[in-house]
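Appendix C: a fully annotated inverse folding record. The material below is reproduced so that readers can follow the format used throughout the book. The structure is listed first as tokens, followed by the designed sequence.
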């Protein structure tokens, strides 16, 4: 895995040096020590930290000392990825090429900050879907941000995060920059004593705006991570819930006072005009509301909390007049939900997870918002799969949210092909995954050739019916050897515990070292095969793997094939997840090569494209022309390596 460039910290605090971690050098207490409430000491008391020499305007009446109680929770994405400052060598331009940059604003404000600020100014309503019909709220945010650097850093971070997710060629760079700016914003915020904000309601205004943007940033980070098992997805979600709820603790008891500040535009104009909220809304949540009231596993406090959550979700489903109204309500969801519900979600209580499924449908209602996309569909599939494994009875709890999603999918061309993934898993279809038996070898070989039939490379390598028949015999014998070897990496899916094989996955790893790459070994001696294309592909694939992961131990996903009669039901996804679960336990990356047609599927599982290769092969048509065949190299990292 490539690492970002790093500049050694030589003036860090003693605690960070002792623990061999990077210090951001914020004085009098660095963010690492502030977050975990350690005693922060520096060996160079006369040296000013970068934040003390920043060209950013200082907060009004900033207190000279910082007690330990001033710390707030820091999102994992911010605390785990601190980006060091880099020395600028050229004038940067947005959206062209990555450029060196002193991104933590430890020096004077530079052209990159100005570009991010301009991007926020001109895209405010898109970046942060706080419906603002006349720009009044945007003006307030900008005016307050120019007085309070922690808020300024936060909006710059959001601008950078937006650029990282909306087609910029420098997406990785802007992602890292967003983390850095948000981390510095939290560092500045932590430098205040909470009592400073309690001195007047006006001083709580920037806190309110900062907490809202920070929560939005945390939601963005949570939705962007789709590469873990269900427990990891759930832990990330509850972490977001607690962060967004916790940061607003300083506003407790002062909401009505905010109406007397410049934020009155929010309460008196924006909300009444854009949010038509009524407790007598639609019936989308009626089914689960009745199930919650009659569930014997919930106490009265939980029933009340869950009912309130469903009321808020119904507001999202009913929101008018457009998707931004829904998006704002959804982004405020974490603030409104009661603590008993968050506790139940964190404990993975099935009833709470079923309610959560409606939250994921609400996310899909807001799929046009740049940070949401198809995350709702992905997360609903994840929770539905988990519940169906617990007990088939939970499938009935998910019939309504799955139906709501299916009703939306036909009108969404980007997700129609995945409609069955959610419905099949959510409805608890009996897909069994296990080691194959020797009797399954022929079936696995047949599925391999049928599933790969649309791949032009297969027909370039085996151009005649006779060569394909020879390939079938070869694959059957090879699969039989793999089945007999308990150390081989092969699993099959069945249509029910005793049903027919519907798909298979093959892989290699340190624990499964056999070579299952099709183009290697005795296959090149099969009669009728085109050895040239076998050898060329094998060479290109190995060179790409060497560039991508080198000699580092990893899993290599060789084949994921589903019988065409069973495709579109999420079987390939389930098989791949089984391998990812093993790799997570071993703390190893997973590498694969994929055609363009399957890239989006692997991306939803958390894989990232890091390289590619291509070769010229004959087309399948009668003209036998030459086409360019291309595969992308993708890597998935376990949570311990991210």
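Designed amino acids, in order:
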């Amino acid at each position: 895995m490539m690492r970002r460039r790093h500049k050694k910290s030589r003036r860090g605090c003693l605690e960070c040096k002792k623990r061999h971690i990077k210090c951001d050098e914020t004085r009098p207490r660095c963010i690492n020590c502030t977050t975990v409430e350690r005693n922060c000491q520096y060996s160079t008391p006369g040296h000013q930290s970068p934040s003390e020499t920043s060209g950013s305007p200082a907060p009004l009446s900033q207190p000279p000392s910082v007690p330990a109680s001033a710390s707030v929770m820091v999102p994992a994405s911010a605390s785990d990825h601190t980006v060091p400052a880099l020395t600028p060598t050229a004038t940067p331009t947005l959206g062209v090429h990555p450029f060196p940059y002193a991104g933590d604003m430890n020096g004077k404000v530079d052209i990159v900050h100005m570009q991010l600020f301009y991007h926020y100014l001109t895209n405010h309503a898109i970046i942060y879907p706080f419906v603002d019909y006349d720009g009044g709220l945007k003006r307030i945010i900008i005016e307050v941000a120019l007085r309070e650097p922690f808020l300024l850093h936060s909006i710059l971070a959001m601008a950078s995060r937006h650029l990282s997710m909306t087609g910029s060629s420098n997406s990785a760079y802007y992602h890292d920059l967003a983390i850095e700016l948000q981390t510095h914003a939290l560092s500045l915020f932590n430098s205040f004593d909470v009592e400073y904000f309690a001195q007047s309601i006006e001083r709580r205004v920037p806190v309110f705006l900062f907490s809202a943007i920070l929560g939005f940033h945390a939601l963005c980070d949570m939705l962007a991570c789709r590469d873990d098992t269900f427990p990891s997805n759930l832990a990330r979600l509850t972490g977001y819930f607690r962060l967004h709820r916790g940061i607003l603790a300083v506003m407790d008891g002062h909401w009505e006072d905010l109406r007397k500040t410049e934020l009155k535009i929010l309460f008196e104009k924006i909300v009444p005009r854009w949010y038509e909220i009524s407790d007598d809304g639609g019936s989308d949540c009626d089914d689960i509301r009745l199930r919650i009231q009659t569930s014997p596993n919930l106490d009265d406090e939980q029933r009340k909390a869950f009912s309130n959550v469903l009321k808020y979700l119904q507001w999202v489903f009913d929101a008018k007049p457009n998707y931004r109204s829904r998006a704002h309500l959804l982004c405020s969801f974490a603030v409104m939900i009661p603590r008993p519900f968050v506790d139940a979600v964190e404990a993975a209580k099935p009833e709470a997870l079923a309610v959560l499924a409606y939250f994921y449908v609400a996310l899909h209602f807001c799929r046009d918002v740049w940070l949401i996309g198809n995350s709702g569909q992905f997360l609903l599939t994840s929770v539905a799969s988990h519940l169906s494994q617990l007990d088939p009875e939970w499938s009935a709890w998910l019939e309504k949210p799955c139906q709501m999603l299916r009703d939306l999918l036909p009108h969404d061309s980007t997700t129609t092909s995945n409609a069955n993934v959610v419905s099949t898993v959510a409805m608890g279809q009996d897909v069994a995954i296990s080691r194959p038996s020797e009797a399954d070898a022929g079936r696995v070989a047949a599925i391999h050739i049928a599933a790969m039939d649309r791949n032009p490379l297969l027909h370039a390598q085996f151009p005649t019916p006779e060569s394909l028949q020879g390939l079938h015999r070869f694959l059957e014998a090879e699969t039989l050897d793999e089945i007999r070897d308990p150390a081989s990496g092969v699993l099959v899916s069945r249509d029910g515990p005793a049903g027919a094989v519907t798909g298979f996955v093959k892989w290699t790893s340190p624990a499964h070292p056999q070579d299952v790459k099709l183009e290697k070994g005795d296959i090149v001696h099969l009669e009728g095969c085109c050895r040239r294309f076998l050898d060329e592909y094998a060479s290109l694939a190995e060179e790409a793997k060497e560039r991508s992961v080198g000699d580092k131990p990893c899993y290599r996903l060789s084949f994921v094939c589903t019988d065409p009669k069973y495709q579109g039901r999420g079987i390939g996804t389930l098989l791949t997840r089984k391998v990812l679960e093993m790799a997570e336990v071993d703390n190893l990356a997973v590498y694969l090569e994929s055609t363009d047609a399957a890239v989006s599927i692997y991306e939803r599982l958390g894989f990232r494209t890091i390289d590619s290769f291509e070769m010229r092969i004959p087309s399948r048509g009668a003209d036998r022309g030459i086409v360019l065949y291309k595969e992308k190299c993708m890597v998935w990292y376990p949570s311990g390596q991210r």
